Amino acid sequence: MSMNRREFLKIAGISTVLGIGGITAASGLRKNLVEASQVKPSSGALKAKRWAMVIDMSKFKTDDDYQRCIDACHRAHNVPNISNPKQEVKWLWKETYEHAFPGQEDEYLSEEIKHLPFLVLCNHCTNPPCVRVCPTKATFKRNDGIVMMDMHRCIGCRFCMAACPYGARSFNFKDPRKLDPGLEKNLEFPTRTKGVVEKCTLCYERLAEGLEPACVEASKGGLIFGDLEDPDSEVRKVLSLNYSFRRRPELGTQPGVYYILGGKE
Amino acid sequence: MLEKALKGGTRYWVWIFFLLSVIGTGFIAYLYQFKVGLGITGMSRDVSWGLYIGQFTFLVGVAASGVMVVLPYYLHDYKKFGRITVLGEFLAISAVIMCMLFIFVDMGQPLRVLNVILHPTPNSVMFFDMLVLSVYLLLNILVGWTVLGAERKGFPYPKWVKPFVYLSIAWAPSIHTVTAFLYAGLPGRHFWLSAIMAARFLASAFAGGPALLILLALIVRKYTKFDPGKEAIQALGKIVTYFMITNVFFLGLEFFTAFYSQIPGHMHSFIYLYSGLEGHAKLVPIMWLSSILAVIALAILIFPQNRKKEGLLAIASVSTFLSLWIDKGFGLIVGGFVPNPFEKITEYWPTVPETLITLAVWAIGFLVLTILYKIAVSIKEDAVFDKYGEKQVQATNK
Questions:
Q1: CATH number for the domain harbouring residue A237
Q2: Which of A87, A120, B286, B397 could form a disulfide with A173, with the two C-beta atoms 3.0–4.6 Å apart?
Q3: Is B388 domain-assigned?
């Protein structure tokens, strides 16, 4: 059989298309079979339908009350100390009332409240805009309400940072391992590479081992953690007894972090 | 047809090597960025997108504006545009290539770029943007190349191209609408959260793109034997005029909503951009420059007797292009991030390596454009045009 160049190219082209199509179809069909599964969860793991946190401001009196929580978090997750504030990485930090709740401050608000520092972190929204915009599902919502971050899949497009109305996301502008050589590494938790976004993950790794988040543990009762969908949980009890508020509730993101001024027992 | 790009005079080669040297310098800067990270740019935790994404946004508009010559020719049989449709399509090709490169250089982990395809996420506007841009690129290559190839042989273009032309006409506004949706759907970014964003994007695109095309047509006429046609250039001038008016009108609508409602969040970014907020005013001079250029452009364009003088039209085109480039390629992006969600102000200004990388991407775009135009012009120089100046009816020296 003789074949001219044109026919050969036609056949070669069609076979290539079929080949690629076949591989795609086959891998599509196989997809459900090879779904990655976690190792068997520990029997002592903390579980919830909707994790949430209440921050009781009456328990935060001294600088140390805040710093203890921040240090516990940043130590547990190898969050580097970066001197350049424009490119720093933060998971849990302080903002004064006027900055944490912009647009809420009244004209004659007491100076005390206006400059009162509030702990801020990822709100683990029920309806998270960051998850909506991520083009690779590197940030996703778990069934227990935690907004997770897969730092190995993140392509560093930073769309999530534009989408987050809480400024909760940090980007590794440079290699964090080099920026903070003094970093005391927690070998239980990965350090990050440059070019990925990170944020609070509500200590999913500690929950899996039956431990409360590091900040909650360090807070001496200032941070209350629990299941929002369990009517008997501590968070629900506290919320039913106190006036609570959240950051920018008008945006419909449904933050999972509540603030109370507290003080009554 | 590519061989046509290999024959050229001294001026052609000087230009090519100039572009290559800009690309080379930018490539070295990119290697530095690749090694150290995006920390070498002026971007920050608060202004997390900068010059790169601004250029991307602006150039999607330039790409989409190709439809402004394709549509009148194919849908309204406006024969004067017959000579320049391919110039519009080739401009679109190089603009889309620049868009893709700007996205690439903006990525923190560029080697993971295929994750966008490996883990397709239909709820992400960025996923759609990648999709529509790729298809638009292919459509323009297909149509532009086929029609030009037919012209070279002295035949009318094949009939099967028509459906692809119609598709590309519908596709052009879609790429820019999707790009606007990157911004217009984000809660808490008041400056971008505007229903008119996509319309504004299209208006500025259809003014800025054709303005660039006018300049390119004038350059082509000056340095080659191919004349894109006086009427075609005048028609482009009309298009620029109407869309520039529309663009300024839309910007006025944004101002009205912000300042008549007096809602602080809606006013902040505008105040920051045009007069400075709490002592931070880095962008004020360039935003006013943009406004002044817009006024100059409109002062020329609105009066037909001005527009008809090609020298003035060229000045108006340069003004329009620069004005929109500042407004959309810089102010619009940075302005959306100031103030940040804590109502604090972090300012942004590009660094030297960031600027070099940006220039290199533009140079790659111009290199692609030069090569494509060189091919198109070489073919058209050989061609004979009918009395409408439409397309070649027979080849002369084949």
A1: 3.30.70.20
A2: A87
A3: no
Best CA proximity match to A157, nearest among A140, A139, A142, A179: A139
Q: Which of B186, B191, B278 to mutate to test the interface with A (most CBs of A within 10 A)?
A: B186
To the nearest whole Å, the CA of B334 is away from the closest chain A CA by 11
Do the domain assignments include residue A1? no
Beta strands in chain B (DSSP E): 383-385, 392-395
ipTM: 0.90
CATH number (domain holding residue B177): 1.20.1630.10
Structural domain boundaries, residue B191: 2-383
CA distance B259 to B254: 9
Of B340, B272, B46, nearest to A99 (Cα)? B340
CA B26 to chain centre: 20
Number of domains in chain A: 1
Q: What is the per-residue pLDDT for A34?
A: 42
For residue A27, tell me if it sits in a domain. no
Task: Please give the single-letter amino acid code of residue A209.
Answer: E
> Measured between CA atoms, how close is B221 to chain A, in angstroms?
39
Structurally, how many domains does chain B consist of?
A: 1
- Kindly give the parts of chain B with pLDDT less than 50: 387, 392-398
The pLDDT, as a whole number, for residue A37 is 53
Band (pLDDT 50/70/90 cuts) for residue A28 is low
Percent of all residues in chain B with a pLDDT value above 70, rounded to a whole number: 96
For residue A226, give its domain range. Answer: 51-260
Q: Does A163 contact B187 at a Cβ distance shorter than 8 Å? A: yes
The chain-wide mean pLDDT, for chain A, equals: 89
Give domain status of residue B390, yes or no. no
Share of chain A above pLDDT 70, in %: 90
pLDDT of A25: 61
Does a structural domain hold residue B355? yes
